[in-house]
Specification:
The structure holds 3 protein chains of 3 kinds. Chain B is an all-alpha fold. Helices cover 73% and strands 2% of the residues of chain B. The longest helix of chain B is centred in the middle third of the chain and has 36 residues, at 101-136. Chain B is globular. Classes of the chains: A mainly alpha, B mainly alpha, C alpha/beta. At the A-B interface, helix 7, helix 8, helix 11, helix 12 and helix 13 of A face helix 1, helix 5, helix 6, helix 7 and helix 10 of B.
């Protein structure tokens, strides 16, 4: 016999045997804690608004080439003709016009809007990938440390302390070029995809600790519970106890921490680009745009404004949604 | 308690040791020739070779590491090109800055301290105050405004806030000079006016996080039985909230504050870069860009020391408050 | 069969205990191989304590007992006497420090998970807290099917049919398998826990205070359910409880524990009617008796239970025993059968005669004391039966 780790599938399997009494059960069907949380989330206006906003951002990012097609301008197209003699965009607010929604970059004269759309794609890709990897790492390490305890717990705890003691920005700054040099020569062109992968790897290395701590604490709180002992008394293995008995009970805080980790990685990616590590010039990214824009703080404030506001809106939507999710999953918290 | 203390300090020393080994390996053992980045552009092969010799890069890694560690604890002789005798704590010689690394550090560390300490006081007062008020006035417009403030602050980028502040107060209104560092002992007014924007930027972002945190803590504490009991037995509101609830709610906040301040002392890279102030963080970034190994080692180690020290202090504080920690 | 029938049949049990079980003692040489044989079972927990380094809590310290197939053994004692630790060691949730546990002729004291696997099916546990023992994120169907799932068993007719069968067996509506634990009451939850324990068709169930977290009215239903199951499925039980009335109702044999040791073990009738150990007497006298008002016959133990970190020398009960003499401090009494071997007592000065002879009475009365008569076994039994219906 096999039961899927996914709750819904398991339910369906148990229910599959007796199709005849399905109608009879209608009145009985229980609501799982997850379903209850979903209902609460649906009723929360903030959650719905920020959720729709997030879906919009994700859709825009996914369809960046489509946006380019419709907009008619690529991220590398330059419009030198629309700049004045000093390389400043002509017109108001950094050259905002019907052709260029958010104006033009001073100097190169590239379109800010389409670069932001592509930057959004880069940021979201890095942030989601890093969040998924750190979540998986954190869950596995945290659950093992919490459940098994002993020397493994001590080692994982110590590695966590060590990771926290390393200054992230400086190490990332130093590690990124070193890693790149491992794969590329001094003067070789580095492919944009590689730059993205290195960033994700650096985030994964430093980001897993908070999830691991969270999961460890939760597992320690739950591991002495009798339902876990019941599974053990039935001969369940480590995998069953961690993944089927414990994890279903702690996915709520994990989900919340995941939803709050994504904006953190967006911020970190931008911060890294800001101090000049990470992505190459041709990969559009929020942090890089802001970093470049700071030189024009006095002469072209619009160039600072648009990327700043976009990244703010994105992170704000994520934070709002994360908060709402926390409230829905744990009705006791706040409000 | 003593046993706990010894254990904790032992683990902290072990962590610092591991950080030093890792950093050392990362920079010395990875493929890039550390010297090539360390020497100005028009550098002839002879000079490169000399630098290699002086740095001991021809020695086995273990010898190099042992020499570095010996320098920190007892001092060592670096040779005439590196300023000769280097007393403990010797952090090496920087070819890029052409001075002993220790001198660089003693110059830039006060800058970072001047940014972080006032900012931390500001963000704790503002953040905790706001969190407490919004927890006690839950559901009112004040609470909603505080939630809005903290969500906004938590979503803003330090460099963006910094840029906007610069734009308004320095370039447009011209109320403040371009940010710079002056020693507080030379001219306190100049010190404050040169750094106040960095304090505001840091405090704005951090206080948002602390407001959220302390509000949640306070709400949780207020719903606990001992607070209800205190209210039920007729204690006045200020007495209950001030004496009982606040103390229970603030402990986790203090923990996180300790860790945050520790991390910030290790270098406020973004703040320093945004405002163009030469502190520990910016020094580290420049050292990495220039491949200035001894300076990188020193900055990484110092920031690790701050983080580990903050960790130990927080743990001890906890152990003093809550005896269960000592046994666990 | 169901719990409803159980209530009608309950009066018969009183006799069954006497008829079914012959003499028993720590010594194994009895007809019929025991299902569970425990020898010298101990569990010591190290405690760290600041600077002083720490010591050992002797939670369980050298237990010997047997359980034969289909037999119910009650394990009673105050909280902290090591009952629960014993139960958890029996199902190998805790690793014994010393001693052996033999199950169906095989030594399982330190068996690994793989070796235990075939035995897991025969050895199950029911937990005390029906709220903590069911995974709140799983449906009842999943909870009850869990033992089948982890052991890779696919019963004839499918898992679902088996789960429904089990739910019906414990008196729950089989249509409820899609519900979540939070939708059930405490008594229903405990029934779910029982169904889960029964899923593998075990031969022995360790019931760790299965009813003490329930309302008194619900307790009786659950105990009756367990008794029906015991009878119909031929289950053996190690029934851990501090409620003597429930144990008397359910168990054929009773072992009384004090500070990690068994002080007395014997058939139910012997233990309840002719307890020999002073501690057993004190425990029994503490049962509230509805037929009698006032504190008559109540033996009040003075002082607290000593710490298992540093148990008293010799007899562990001597610090609170009104009969203690010098020998009790120097020599530990062995758990030996007396009076023809029907019950074993670890006491230098065992009592004789029926229950009711208290500390003040024992000096005077060797036979039934004046007060003892009124508190005869019949009256108490009636009281228990009353409660359990």
């Amino acid at each position: 016999m096999s039961m899927s780790p996914v709750e819904g599938v398991a339910l369906a399997e148990i229910g599959a045997g007796g199709g005849a009494d399905v109608p009879k059960e209608k009145g009985f069907v229980g609501r799982s804690p997850g379903q209850l949380a979903w209902i609460r989330l649906r009723r929360d206006r903030t959650a719905m608004v920020s959720g729709v906003l997030l879906i919009f951002f994700v859709l825009v990012a996914l369809s960046a080439p489509l946006v380019e097609l419709l907009y008619g301008i690529g991220p590398r197209d330059q419009f030198q003709g629309k700049l004045d003699g000093f390389g400043m965009p002509l017109g108001y607010a950094g050259g905002v016009s019907g052709d260029h929604f958010f104006g033009l970059e001073p100097g190169l004269g590239r379109d800010i809007f389409v670069r932001l759309v592509y930057g959004l794609r880069t940021s979201l890709l890095i942030a989601f990938a890093a969040a998924v990897i750190t979540a998986v790492l954190g869950i596995v390490l945290g659950a093992l440390a919490g459940f098994l305890g002993g020397w493994l717990d001590a080692v994982i705890n110590w590695v966590t302390d060590l990771t926290l003691a390393m200054p992230f920005l400086i190490i990332a700054l130093a590690l990124t070029p070193t890693l790149t040099l491992r794969f590329y020569g001094e003067r070789e062109a580095v492919s944009p995809a590689f730059g993205v992968a290195v960033l994700i790897a650096v985030f994964a290395m430093f980001g897993w600790t908070s999830t691991a701590r969270l999961v460890r604490g939760q597992v320690i709180a739950l591991r002495e519970r009798e339902f876990v002992e019941a599974a053990r008394a039935s001969g369940a293995g480590l995998g069953h106890m961690i993944f089927r008995q414990l994890l279903p009970n702690i996915w709520a805080p994990i989900l919340v921490s995941f939803s709050l980790a994504v904006p953190q990685f967006i911020t970190s990616e931008a911060a890294l680009s800001f101090i000049g590590v990470g992505l190459t010039e041709e990969t559009p990214s929020f942090g890089r745009m802001i970093y470049e824009s700071l030189d024009y703080l006095q002469t072209d404030p619009a160039f600072v404004f648009f990327p700043g506001i976009t990244i703010f809106a994105l992170v704000f939507a994520f934070n709002l949604f994360g908060d709402a999710l926390r409230d829905a999953l744990d009705p006791k918290s706040s409000r | 308690m003593a046993r706990f203390l010894i254990k904790r300090i032992f683990s902290a020393v072990l962590t610092l040791f591991a950080v030093s080994v890792l950093t050392f390996l990362m920079f010395f053992a990875l493929p890039r020739d550390p010297v090539s980045g360390m020497c100005p552009k028009n550098c002839n092969p002879e000079r490169l070779e000399r630098v290699r010799q002086e740095l001991g890069l021809r020695d086995p890694l273990v010898t190099q590491y042992a020499g570095y560690m010996k320098g920190i604890f007892t001092g060592r002789d670096l040779g005439s090109a590196q300023g000769g005798r280097c007393d403990a704590p010797c952090l090496g010689w920087s070819y890029v800055n052409n001075e002993a690394v220790l001198d660089t550090i003693t110059r830039v560390l006060p800058v970072t301290l001047s940014i972080v300490i006032p900012a931390a006081i500001l963000w704790l007062l503002l953040g905790v105050g706001l969190g407490m008020v919004s927890a006690l006035r839950r559901g009112t417009w004040l609470d909603r405004a505080a939630i809005g403030f903290s969500l906004t602050g938590a979503s803003l980028q330090l460099y963006f806030v910094g840029a906007v502040l610069l734009m308004i107060f320095v370039y447009n209104l011209r109320w403040l000079p371009v940010p710079s560092y002056t020693s507080v002992f030379d001219n306190p007014v100049k010190w404050a006016s040169g750094l106040v924007l960095s304090w505001i930027a840091l405090a704005f972002l951090f206080s948002a996080i602390y407001a959220r945190l302390s509000r949640a803590q306070m709400l949780e504490t207020l719903s606990e039985d001992f607070v209800r009991t205190a209210r039920a037995k007729g204690l006045a509101k200020p007495a209950v909230y001030g004496r009982h609830a606040l103390r229970a709610a603030i402990t986790p906040v203090v923990t996180i504050a300790g860790l945050d301040v520790g991390a910030a002392l290790g270098g406020t890279v973004i703040t320093e870069t945004t405002f163009g102030i030469q502190g520990l963080g910016r020094t580290a970034v420049e050292a990495v860009r220039a491949g200035d190994l001894p300076t990188i080692m020193a900055t990484v180690l110092i920031s690790a020391v701050f983080v580990v020290l903050a960790n130990v202090l927080v743990d001890l504080l906890y152990a003093a408050i809550d005896p269960r920690v000592r046994l666990g | 069969m169901s719990a409803r029938n159980a209530a009608q049949r309950s009066p018969a049990v009183a006799n069954e205990g006497q008829a079914g079980m012959s003499a028993s003692s720590a010594a194994p040489a009895v007809a019929g191989e025991p299902l569970l044989r425990v020898r010298g079972l101990s569990k010591h927990f190290p405690v760290r304590d600041g600077l002083r380094g720490g010591g050992l809590v002797r939670a369980v310290d050298g237990l010997d007992f047997d359980v034969r197939p289909g037999e119910t053994l009650g394990l009673v004692g105050e909280s902290g006497c090591g009952k629960t630790t014993t139960g958890r060691m029996l199902v190998r949730l805790l690793e014994p420090t010393a001693g052996t546990i033999e199950f169906a002729g095989r030594d399982i004291t330190h068996a690994g998970r793989r070796e235990l696997r075939p035995l897991r099916q025969d050895l199950q546990i029911i937990f005390q807290d029906p709220y903590a023992s069911l995974n709140p994120r799983h449906t009842v169907g999943r909870i009850v099917a869990m033992p089948l799932q982890v052991n890779g068993i696919n019963p004839p007719g499918g898992v679902k049919a088996r789960v429904r069968e089990l739910l019906e067996l414990v008196g729950l509506n089989p249509e409820h398998y899609n519900r979540y634990p939070h939708e059930f009451s405490g008594g229903q939850r405990q029934r779910i826990g029982i169904a889960r324990a029964l899923a593998l068709r075990p031969k022995l169930i360790v019931a760790d205070e299965p009813v003490s977290a329930l309302d008194v009215s619900i307790q009786a239903q659950v105990v009756n359910l367990l008794r029906d199951l015991q009878r119909d499925l031929g289950l053996a039980f190690v029934f851990i409880a501090h409620d003597l009335a429930v144990v008397r109702h359910f168990c054929q044999r009773v072992a009384v524990m004090y500070l990690g040791r068994i002080v007395e073990i014997g058939d139910r009738v012997d233990i309840y009617e002719r307890p020999q150990h002073p501690y057993t007497r004190a425990l029994l006298s503490a049962i509230p008796d509805v037929t009698k008002l006032g504190p008559a016959g109540r033996i009040r133990l003075t002082g607290d239970v000593p710490t298992p970190l540093n148990p008293p020398s010799g007899c562990r009960f001597r610090t609170r025993c009104w009969k203690a003499q010098d020998i009790c401090a120097t020599e530990e009494p062995a758990l030996v059968p007396r009076d023809g071997g029907r019950q074993a007592t670890a006491c230098h000065f065992p009592e004789s005669g029926p229950v009711g002879a208290g500390p003040d009475a024992h000096a005077v009365a060797t036979g039934p004391g004046a007060r003892g008569v009124g508190t005869g076994p019949g009256a108490t039994a009636a009281g228990v039966e009353e409660v359990s219906k």
